[in-house]
Specification:
single chain; alpha+beta; Cathepsin D, subunit A, domain 1; 6-stranded mixed barrel; elongated; 30 strands; 13% helix
Length: 512
């Protein structure tokens, strides 16, 4: 079913014009990228190196930056994937996104199903070993469309990595690149970095990743010398195989001339990499598993919050990700800030951020969807996650059909329907209408929190064809529901792991 949907969605996107407008849609009953990362106050494990965008021109110089003055927050630059693709048309970009979404959703279902029937690897970790906790195999495909500039190694060299809250392992394509996808710029060369260190197969941390020959036992003849091989797979042909290693990651900050260096980051040095990552150098995982970049920073800084604000899909402006609290953004004081509690992981696949979705409102009316539709089963299926790497939003089939029917009924007679449009439904001909009116869409959570979306976050307008479609799709009843990044546009979304809750507030992210 998902493979058929992928083919259909590709056909649909071939029909889409290069210009995809996300604005210009009004609600019937309504009201309205990642540039920078900020860290909380840091300790002696992190050096404020003072390295900025000039570092790219000085990559071959010795790493002798003078420490900058400590600040209460540190910021690094990040760009939207489409904005970073230069001369590529939106049509070409959406073709990639279509294929990635279909593979990603299927891989997420496989991940939950496989991990729920497999025992967790490794042993319990002490507080000092928080960076090296268990990582599960079969994680979702990393297809996020927001790129983060990260400088890796000593001397530091610049790489653009995909940011993804739906996966954990950080990895780069590495020399020798035996089987790699095309990326912009050279691959990472561990031989050119004085701070690169392979983890050996005898290191306890090596037991937290799957070996290339999984599920067979790992051969480790010289525990103190042989490298730790890993195989991290995402679904279908998407995977990364290489050596687990430690390296220094330096991030550019939004303050002029400032940067921050984090030593000893666990990452995968991938010598064989396949999948839908073209253009990027690798992937930066922000999942809730301990091997993710977000988790490793928490271990270093003691921070328990990160957030991001995604610019709309039609924008080439950058926005930011924030690690730690940031008074400058004043998110806590936002008058429309809401929180909802995270749900416990529905299975040992604890990469994902689950929320307790209990209902959907269309036009202000709670739809008649059975409450058990949203439940996560003991076997790991079901439930709802929020994910930066999936583009559209997906609801399990029984809920999707009710949502779809609700829009069809409430918009009957409003605009000429476009029947048999590939994949997306309903679709309407809105040629000549500057701001089409559509019913409101809101999500209701178990603790009473309601997430109200602006119309441009759930209807996509395909100009110049004058077609407008509901940007929501269905997944199998046994799958999970996913709140994708299209619905998260222009919201400041906070992951408060200390209080186990998700925060969200409307923002014009290009102005943050």
């Amino acid at each position: 079913m998902l493979q058929l949907a992928a083919r259909s969605l590709l056909l649909f996107l071939l029909l889409v014009s290069p210009a995809v407008a996300s604005a210009g849609i009004a609600k019937l009953n309504s009201s309205s990228p990642l540039f920078g990362i900020e860290f909380p106050p840091f300790n002696t494990a992190v050096a404020d190196t003072g390295c900025d965008s000039k570092l790219g021109a000085a990559e071959d110089a010795a790493d002798e930056q003078k420490p900058a003055s400590p600040s209460s927050s540190l910021k690094l630059h990040m760009t939207h994937r489409r904005g970073a693709e230069g001369g590529r048309t939106r049509k070409g970009s959406f073709l990639d996104l279509a294929e990635k979404d279909a593979v990603r959703v299927e891989a997420m279902h496989r991940r939950v199903a496989s991990s729920s029937s497999s025992p967790r690897r490794g042993r319990a970790l002490s507080e000092s070993e928080r960076v090296v906790a268990t990582v599960e195999s079969g994680v979702a495909v990393g297809s996020a469309e927001y790129l983060m500039d990260v400088y890796v190694g000593t001397p530091p060299r610049r790489f653009q990595m995909i940011m993804d809250t739906g996966s954990d392992l950080n990895w780069l394509q590495c020399a020798p690149c035996l089987d790699c996808f095309e990326q912009r710029g050279p691959v990472f060369d561990p031989a050119a970095s004085s701070s690169y260190r392979n983890l050996t197969c005898g290191d306890p941390r090596c037991g937290h990743v799957a070996p290339p020959e999984a599920p067979a036992p790992r051969a480790c003849r010289r525990p103190g010398e042989d490298p730790c091989p890993y195989y991290y797979w995402y679904g279908d042909q998407s995977n990364s195989t290489g050596d687990l290693a430690l390296e220094s990651f330096t991030v550019n900050l939004t303050a002029p001339g400032a940067s921050s260096r984090v030593d000893g980051v666990v990452f995968g040095c991938g010598h064989r990499n396949r999948g839908l990552f073209h253009g990027a150098a690798g992937l930066l995982g922000l999942g809730r598993g301990p091997l993710s970049f977000a988790s490793q920073l928490r271990a270093v800084y003691g921070g328990h919050t990160f957030s991001y604000c995604l610019v709309d899909h039609g924008s080439d402006v950058a926005s930011k990700v924030v690690f730690g609290e940031d008074d400058a953004l004043a998110l806590a004081a936002h008058p429309r800030l809401k929180y909802t509690a995270f749900a416990p992981a529905s299975s040992p696949a604890d990469t994902f951020y689950y929320v307790r979705l209990t209902g959907v409102l269309v036009g202000g009316e709670l739809l008649n969807i059975s409450s058990d539709t949203w439940d996560a089963s003991e076997g790991g299926s079901g439930g709802t996650i929020i994910d930066s790497g999936t583009t559209l939003s997906y609801f399990v089939e029984p809920a999707y059909q009710v949502i779809r029917r609700a829009f069809i009924d409430r918009m009957s007679g409003s605009y000429p329907p476009v029947p048999d449009f590939p994949v997306l439904s309903p679709c309407y001909n809105v040629s000549g209408v500057e701001r089409p009116e559509v019913p409101e869409l809101s999500l209701l959570f178990a603790d009473g929190a309601v997430w109200d979306f602006p119309a441009e976050n759930y209807f996509i307008r395909l100009d110049p064809d004058g077609i407008m479609c509901l940007a929501v799709l269905g997944t199998p009843r046994t799958g999970m529901s996913i709140i994708g990044n299209f619905q998260q546009q222009n919201f400041h979304v906070a992951y408060d792991l200390h209080n186990n809750r998700l925060g969200f507030a409307p923002r014009r992210c290009a102005e943050v």
